[in-house]
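[[Per-residue structure]]
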Amino acid sequence: MEGAEEHPEQKHVVWKTSPSSSMISESNSLVSATLGRVMNTLLTAKPRKLQDAIFSLQPVHKIAPIGVSLEQSLWFLHKYVDDALAKEESLDHVLIPMIEHDGFELPTRLAVAAADVILSLFVSMTRKGLHSDSFDCKKKSFSPTVSSNSIRFLPSAASEKKPSKTCKNSQSEEAEVMFLLWDHLDELIILVEKLVSWSRKSRSLHAKGLEQVCRWLQVTKKDYDCIPNDADSKMRNTGALLLSSCWKHYGLLLHLEDYRICGQYRELLEQYLSGIQFFAETRSKEPSRNKESGTDTLKFFINCLCLLLGRLVGTQFETAISEYGSQISQALISQLHGADDEVIEGATCILRVVIFKTNKRLAKTDEFKEIGASLPMLLHLLDEEDGAAKVVVRLVAEYCFICLDIKCFHDVLKRLVTGNLSQRRNALRFISDIIHVSLESDGTLPQSMRQDIVNNLLDFLQEEDVIICKQACSLIPFVDPSLVLPGLVNLIYSSNQRVQSSAGTAFISLLKNYKQKPEVLCIIIDCLSDGPAATKGSQLDIDRVLALLHQWSKTVEHWDLLVGSLIDKLFMEPSNAVIVRFLSFISEHLAENTELVFQQLLSYTRGQEDFSESLGTINTTEKWQLSIFSRLCPLLVIRLLPLSAFDNLGSSLMYGELPNKLPTSDVGGFGMHPDQCITALLIHRAFNKSEFEDVRKLSAELCGRIHPKVLVPIITFELEKATNTKDLLKIKACLFAMCTSLTVRGMESYKHPDVLRIRKTVEVILLWPSMNENGVSKVQHGCIDCLALMVCTELQAMKTSEKSTSGDALTGSVWNYIIQQLTCDNPDKLPLKLGTQEKAMAHISFRLCMANVLISVCQKIPDSGKKALISKILPHIIRSVKVITDSDIRSACIQIIFSVVYHLKSAVLPYSSAILEASIRSLRGESDKERMGGAKLLASLMASEEAVVQSISVGLLEARTLLDDLSESDPSADVRSMCQKLLACMSSP
């Protein structure tokens, strides 16, 4: 700045970049824009970071035009200034942002001199019309009851040079000069505002006094400016006189470079303190109508004290605080009980200066070794809950933070947290102020203080006082999550509903405050994994915490950051079931980031060895279990995804090139590497004989979610190949995958053309001789379930109002095929090359499998398919009982009807009479099994709903007679016993 004044005629040349400079753009506008970003980066940087960057400054070879870092900004500024000095160019782009930045301004020497001259002119206007240096004007303005001899003020600088001539002037001249200052009130306000901006950075207490003066000027203008511009107006005279009398003293203290005041500061301090004490005492004795005037007087003296103490520097300030600190504290502490906010605010600022022994901006430093003598005087004010307590709490909090006085911190908390309600509320306010002071500062609290704050907040959450509980809840989001979350989670487990609710609210607020911090979620998972609920195995308590995630999840904006970290944590702790539970509560957001999830899963599985290769390295039970979980955890994540995550055939991560190549290629010749895509991974693990059984099962289940256009051709090929080689493990995996696909995809899977090939392969497997020891029976049960799900899918899709089915539809119908095979008595129709006896046995076994398919259908059919089952299948089975010659097959048909009645209940009402007839026919059957089946069917009918029982009431008479005979003469004891029980039911009322 000084250089700018010494060379007022220097040329202002636009800085042009040299071709060799890689940092500077060739565009002048781009240079200005970049420099603007540079200056903004530097001026908004925190002091400590800026200082560290300066000390470690290294040349930066390239500066990006956008998004410059702190180090790049420093190097850019260094290069810019060097080039500007070499070319004698203007530094306006650098200096102006520094001089006028974020409400702070740095004046030039000329501006300082000009301000002091204007202040002297304004002060000189106050000398006219004032008699000597008495306090008469103050007396008239503030308190008419105060004696003129109470307080005397020093003469201003202007009066020392030139004696007042007010007494010699006429009354009109006095008014004219007095109104001269009033007429320039707007300019006066502008000047004070400028002084505020100049002082705010370096003289914070002085700036606070200036702000109060500026506020008073604005209020005075508003109160008296509405009066007509008439010199005889009494109100206007009062306003002008008030301004003149106050400005006489304000103007003296506002000079920027008036060093003579420094020699008078003791006398000024004493007078201002005397004024505060006198008017404070007077105000307490005055009637209420005069208290407002006394309050204004107190504001005046406090403002003067702020201005005076704020401008003292060095030894003068230290001496003033040393000599008058105790007196200042005693005078101002009593004002903290007042109701006026401005008085409390000003007193607080001055007390802060006295306590911290500095009138500069507070910063963390080692200079404060012990608390000042005035601070213990304040602590007794914390026993009550009033304005004074609020101020003292703030001051003590600032002291503890700046001085890192842990002993003082503990002493204050110990005094308050065990006290009465007011003390406990002040303790919480003390913690609140420390938290907010630390948030506003660059520094951090010591670990012990942070832990104590957290412990006390958790205790306050359990307070019965609603105010304390709510305020503690509001502070939880601003403390270290790693310290507070373990205790907070334990409070959510509390059996006390009030504590549980408060802890839950605080928990949600904390999560919202750290909604983009994945490490916080990891801390929560650790708390749930290691907490008492995890130890006791209480899933309910863990779910109570996880249920709170729903409210938090609505506020999260960037799920990709959180999802990736959570999945990474699962991979690091594959056996941690809490992580999977946590992910299940945010599964909808996993679905929104499926590509990210798939990418992480593939990346993780690529790093895993093939299981057959890693078997040799697993030599302990612990390693074995860890290996299981490490291979299961990617599958568990996939299972959390909704079905829609598998619908995108264009996803290379999900399907690779399969959707394009499968329709045009032989599936057998199309190799799939497990690292290629998620589909290949699932298929590989489902069919890998060396894989863990749990991994194979889960993989096969997840294969069922794969889009049918990809899954069905693969399953068809693998099932046919496995059937040819009798690979039972692969057959089970194929059937499980197909069953899952039919369950979750329905007709979308069923309508695929290759399903017919699957059905034919299943028929072949069902014709195998069943031997339990070789696992064929289990495979055949899988075939039965697969056919049953096909029938269920088909029946669900049928229109219940449909009267008939076309011949073509029946030909391709699975349910029609099942009934045909069940009711066919000709074994020659089977596709087997066996002897007559062997073929007959195989035929019976196959027909029984078909019966089991229909029984399974009755168990699995949902409500939407029940009517179709009744109308399409039941009539055929009832008729078959009359015509089928084989007793075992008739028994199987009766068992089918029994399953229909048992599972479909009142839906069988239209066929209840026919069913009763079938049961009576079976009771007359040849085999014990057939008669027992008839008895059970009759029992099922009798146990049906009332409408069904009423519909068969007439036929039950015939059944009763038959039951009488069977209960006495049937050769089977089981049948006799069953008939006796049925008769007893009929006889009971």
Remarks:
- The longest helix spans residues 836-860.
- The chain has 54 helices and two strands.
